[in-house]
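Bug #77: duplicate submission created two jobs. Keeping one. Sequence:
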Amino acid sequence: MSERLSNFVAGRWQAGTGAGTALFDPVLGTELVRVDATGLDLPAAFAFAREQGGAALRAMTYAQRAAMLAALGKVLQAHRDVYYEIATANSGTVKNDSAVDIDGGLFTLGVYAKLGAGLGAQRHLLDGDAARLGKDPLFQSQHVLVPTRGVALFINAFNFPSWGLWEKAAPALLSGVPVIVKPATATAWLTQRMVQDVVNAGVLPAGALSVICGSSSGLMDQLQPFDVVSFTGSAETAAVIRSHPAVVQRSVRVNIEADSINSALLLPGETPGSEAFELLAKEVAREMTVKSGQKCTAIRRVLVPEALYAQAAEAIGARLAKTTVGNPRNETVRMGALVSRAQLRSVQEGLAHLKVQTTVLHDGSQHPLFDADPAVACCVGPTLLGTQDADGADRVHNTEVFGPVATLVPYRDAAHALQLIRRGQGSLVASLYGSDAAALAASAIELASSHGRVHVISPDVAALHTGHGNVMPQSLHGGPGRAGGGEELGGLKALNFYHRRAAVQASTAVLTQLSPPAPSA
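Kept job's structure:
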């Protein structure tokens, strides 16, 4: 039997008492490690984090916690090579895809370390200016933000074991709130190893960071009114979390990132071969293949004018045809595996579901696998589907296949395109492609109400834009409706989730004492 990974709770490493769940190499099929959380004293684990970790973090200033994040980032940076090896073995990702997860997490930590340094030597934040409560300005009301006196529970998805942890933990720790992370079982190894390295380095106070690998059973039961929970995953599990007594009865604050059927739109007026047209084809092919399409922000629907349908299919298909699929250890391979057999079955079933209302424009099954046994490896080639019935193909607008799959959808005019995109019922991101600045701006505003982010790509930013699916810490991540209704990142806006807002009504002299101290000379 392979090594069993320990959990870090209540300030010490603890092994589960069960046989554990095996984690596998999705290309070779070999067992890597086992995870198990059976028998853990969860009430004690949460109490330790809440009381010990929370008190220690709140005693620090924002600048001190920012320096702590910077030190944490240096620890992780020193072990990058090991993280890449784990990602290749456990997630089946090629080096560039591993970088999206690993280096993306490190970058996010660095951004929040810099943002926190600017908050200085204070332990609370002012929210706006003081407001008079009467004619005499002597008695006023000042809103303040203070760290919640609870724990932040993260229940994370399998696709980003590094970034998924640090994009949440960075603002939580900067806010002064201890973290308990429950990574998705299939890829928990990388998360666990990162926590292990941070713990061994001693850069965080006891109880500030805990990791539980294995079943999530009982975790939500431990939550108290001032705790918060952040979940990334399926809409079905999100519904269970929202209906849990901790949320319904104890008003635990919850943030959800769920399913998202993201879109890419080529605006009217473009021609085949135009720069905007080529930018669309390039970005669609890239988003379909990065991390084998296993990104919450990946492009799922591609909308083009009816007259450009055939040309768009040809341009995207030509790029997809160059994608080599197989063992990520082979330097010629550009797209690795899905993370598990279960995920492979899910993608195959999703494809079959969509094919009822679509045709295959580029067949992923025709891609040969390099250095990989098709009977063992969880690999699938990129597949571009298409429909000529944009309005009637409801499955295209309602089904997210979490793999290298997208559907080409023709539209009649701009109004029709926006209507089709909104049928996604709320998404994390939509990207727009065109050369008319006014039309791009108008479309972005029209789509803003149903998206967390609108990524506009015009020829002038062809070499500068950060990518449809890349989540930057300076920008909001989340989306309304089907996407979960949550918000993460967005620079310092992310701190709001981990703070409580209160109004202090007092004399001007008292309120003056709440202002941050003047910086030392």
